[in-house]
Design a protein that fits this description.
Largest interface: A-B, 43 and 43 residues
Largest sheet of chain A: 7 strands, mixed
Structural class of chain A: alpha/beta
Distance between the termini of chain A: 26 Å
Strand order of the largest sheet of chain A: 8-9-7-10-13-12-11
CATH architecture of the largest domain in chain A: 2-Layer Sandwich
Number of helices of chain A: 12
Helix content of chain A: 25-40%
Number of strands of chain A: 13
Strand content of chain A: 15-25%
Shape of chain A: globular
Oligomer: homotetramer
């Protein structure tokens, strides 16, 4: 904490809180906000007793926190946070997010929630997917789904942003243009996805123990992963008539990669029109995203290395053997979590959307 | 070479040659044969000038080669090999395999070819896939495709065994029972595969440079990989009426994993019959493989760790969201190459198929 | 368990027990013994309630256990084990090893203990290093330290073999010849070691969580690791006059590598004689180990890849900048644990020392 | 290149050139400068014919280069560079750096050279270490060694900064305070270092091929690495009387880690004074670096994860078993190369030293 930097003390920056900073999305938020020109972290809140020092939790943050008043986490106290901060990033378990959100909103603090608590518009769907009661169903209508590229206007004016899941972000960005344009058959979609281990969180588990996950690769949650209904919801909401025509859920099969970060999704769909070719698929994607600062439509298939530690999503589409194949890549902790959270916060605070993210 | 072991000198073992031992399949063969109770390596042949010493090429082989007459590679000389060996493992580039095979067969030596030279029955298909002329098309009818579980009787009596590709081995073993039983629609097959880097060989390349492949994941050869026609050929030959009805090629999309060895294939197909369920899929697989020593039908999805450095293939099938999903795992260098080569050699030499492989 | 193999049923094999087979050394033992020509596992014992099935614990063992009566672990029952087995491998925590060893010895079963329980001859030293009471100090004189190359005769006739620690094995093999020959100053020894994560066991811990250990490297237990007194003891016992002259303990600094298995030790010492050169160092090592089946004195520095999944230890020595530098490599789970355990068991059972290990 | 960002066009930023941007230090420089508030890249120069597009070379740079006039590299033309840029970062091979530096300096452009060309003050020492003639020995006196923390005043006024080697940066920062204070014996220093593979550059080589470097660890250049004389030079120049008393070179033994980036050095030395303890060592380090923005003296041993992708160097010292043990960690591409290069450029351009680096 001894390394000084004037920037954190700058009184003209917008103060925000990071609640639950001891997980990987919290760490990533602190890293991003530490370079943000107009936002500063004023409050780090943890439910742990005693509250941790974040630079002891993550020694690499020592220099990032230079200038932060104390570097110590404080308890999660909505009243205190409301006095000092205009916006809160919640990096909490789903249940805890539902618990704290109403109190923060009631005190006029904007909330970007990185959990799944407010992503699904229907609490019954939520409860099936997550296996516990939704204790703030009344708050769902107030929330906006923060897939920025597709909900930008709603995000701009909202108080409660439900930051999307990592897998759904890539799937929706890759599929929505083609679905809206009627180029693919909505009933044929298969999303074969692979994620780095950071997506599974920071708590040690047997299958994430280094000698188990290392040099290994496996499918999990085949067709029953809880991100599947989230993907289906977005495709229906923003997929136009074809999305609305989506019957059940598309098939989503995630895999665990032996690496820290990154999601690559290889997506298959049947063409909805005869003679669909690669050019038409790519043109559709490029038209949709040509002005988007964080989406790059690539002429070749992207790799994880192309997007790691950036807020970018790279996507490529083609038609081969009579099938549309899309490959989308993002960093699960950035565009798939904390980067997109800052993208949304920028909009909610009236800042340039790209602020601190390029 | 100073570590002595009587086993290599045992005169009652069957002498074989490994031609092209300086790549990863060659190394794996030497490791397997070093523990084989009834086969011994008598001849190591390399096209390199000067010929390498294999224990300098791979220091880990020092103790495996104990007792081998010299440990030095000799030139590829069909006449000399024929004098000393009953069977040859060819671990050469495709073109070199075509060049040496006829001479070896003419001298009465059995050949297990680990290249793709004799895998495709039609030389025109071969030439399209591999981009060069097939210089021994006359030899194709003599070859037997060495997917042991499905061509066992043919392999037993053959002189020239075309050892299958790594990806086609897993795809065919997973799909053939369901295809023959008419449980899946042959036109709907999508094979999403991922392989460790050893599958790409031992020659350094920019995309296989450690800092590029490490912490990375990518799709490549999307729908145009040369293993695709090999998979199609096997499904047609052994898939029964449904295999024969296969139109074009199934869609095959390989990916590169940041690990040394292992192939995991996640295979999607539409059910061909209404009401197909997981039980029926698993029963079909179990019936097909219950007596197979190297195929395990798992009730859960296998991971790479379950099969690495074994000659086993683990497979699991299920029906989710109206689709059949198969997950198959193998070691690309063992069941996908050198292990299956020994499995075939065992049959060709009249030995127990599992000899040296359990 | 359905894969059949006659070998496990062979009645002329020596039956042994593996007690505590659910950790990494247990898994490695089962893999090695599954290929052993004259030993068979008759009893798998676990303290867990309910007792696990080992093929569910490690799906990769399905084929290795073919023929094992049930594949199920049984409780740790010394009486039952004594009826069926001649020798027991204990892969238990230190305290549990002390608890079960006396009962097994009393029933005439030989014991190879892979824990540290019987490694240190002095119980007070043990208690300082391990932080708990030694509950079988009376058993210590009966034990033989199983660094096979240096205690071969003692091991051959013993009933209780204390299998060495992974780090001490490499350090002692590298240092003893030079120390005995008086080539290095015993007070100057620095052992800089690095191990793969499997050495830390199978229980998940925060620092061994994949996203923490991956792409990371760190020193730990600097100068206070409990293998340090074990190294010192061996150097004193077998280091000749120079070992006996060793004052305090040599400095031992282990590091954690982002890989599964392997130990590399880079060892520094001051020459004890003027004009010592690389030739003299290498000659000393070669003379000591020329007849050893599992030690290779290399002319270049070994890497982990050269020894992984073998029972070999590769070592190289040189003199540079006025210092002796030794590099020793081994697989921590094989020569550093289960491989050496089988090497010792072979001797204790009157078998060829290399049986099942080459 | 289509993603727009006004920042690159900002006319009030200082224009610089990156020469040789297609290696890892070039990529890292572009990433750092892309976030720098007061410097902009105006010129990307490559010796390749045809000149590459940097966003094709590194697809991840697409968004970083937004606003850069073309994204295309231009030839290395000192005259053109001098017209447009005030400072040049040279990321070239040593020989090429010597070739271009005089022409750039002659035209009034400041140079930060990331090669070793100007690091060693004595051309004979350089030629012994690097094995080729120094073609600009006349330029050596003009250069300043850019270990910022120890040569800050010289760097501030210089035109030619020789950016230090990655290993020497960590070694010198860890050792200099103790050496100057006379706490350690200069003749006893052993630097046991380990680096990620990115330190070996971007050209594929057999030992850096993924399946060779992965899961591997090895020592190389034992006592003969060319960074050894660079370390010795710095210790002599800035180590006070004790540095001046340094006889030959300290022993430096690097190792290759299976990870992308990071250097960890575990450094051993004999205390020069009786009774030296950990507190005295840590106090000395803290006193030396308490005001340094990029050096953190830690109370525990740092890991690579603590410093990766930062310009920080973390160091910890202690006394154990009668020896001083220092552990220093840095990112070899940031503090060990491009980050320190920007730190030096900031000083040379009259900017705050930390600009763009926190």
């Amino acid at each position: 904490m001894s390394k000084s930097s004037a920037s954190w003390r700058s009184s003209d920056r917008i103060p925000v809180a990071v609640v639950g900073p001891t997980g990987y999305t919290g760490l990533e938020l602190i890293e991003i906000l530490g370079r943000h020109p107009t936002i500063r972290i004023d409050y780090l809140a943890s439910a742990r007793v005693p509250t941790p020092r974040i630079d002891q939790e993550f020694p690499r943050l020592a220099h990032r926190l230079a200038g932060h008043p104390t570097g110590e986490c404080e308890p999660i106290d909505a009243a205190k946070i409301a006095v000092r901060c205009r916006l809160v990033f919640l990096c909490l378990p789903h249940e805890a997010a539902m618990e704290h959100t109403p109190a923060l909103l009631a005190r006029g603090v904007k909330v970007v929630d990185l959990s799944a608590a407010y992503r699904l518009r229907d609490s019954a769907t939520y409860e099936r997917a997550y296996g516990h009661t939704h204790t703030d169903a009344a708050g769902l209508p107030r929330s906006v789904y923060g897939l920025t590229e597709w909900f930008r206007d709603e995000v701009r004016g909202c108080d409660l942003c439900a930051n999307p899941g990592c897998y759904p972000t890539a799937a929706a960005i890759a599929l929505l243009p083609l679905l809206r344009a009627g180029l693919i058959d909505p009933s044929s979609i298969i999303i074969n996805a692979a994620s780095g281990v950071s997506g599974a969180g920071r708590a040690p588990k047997p299958n994430l123990h280094y000698p188990e996950a290392n040099e290994n690769f496996s499918a999990y949650g085949i067709g029953v992963h809880r991100h599947q209904p989230e993907i289906a919801q977005t495709l229906r909401l923003k997929g136009g008539d074809f999305g609305a025509a989506l019957g059940g859920e598309p098939l989503f099969v995630p895999h665990l990669l032996p690496l820290e970060r990154g999601i690559l999704e290889t997506i298959y769909a049947a063409p909805a029109t005869a003679g669909l070719d690669t050019l038409a698929v790519q043109s559709c994607l490029k038209a949709a995203y040509e002005r988007e600062p964080f989406v790059v439509v690539r002429d070749d298939a992207p790799t994880l290395r192309d997007v790691q530690r950036t807020n970018m999503l790279h996507v490529n589409g083609r038609v081969v053997n009579g099938r549309v194949v899309l490959v989308a890549a993002e960093d699960n902790l950035v565009k798939g979590a904390s980067g997109q959270a800052v993208q949304n916060a920028n909009l909610m605070l009236g800042l340039d959307e790209t602020c601190g993210l390029l």
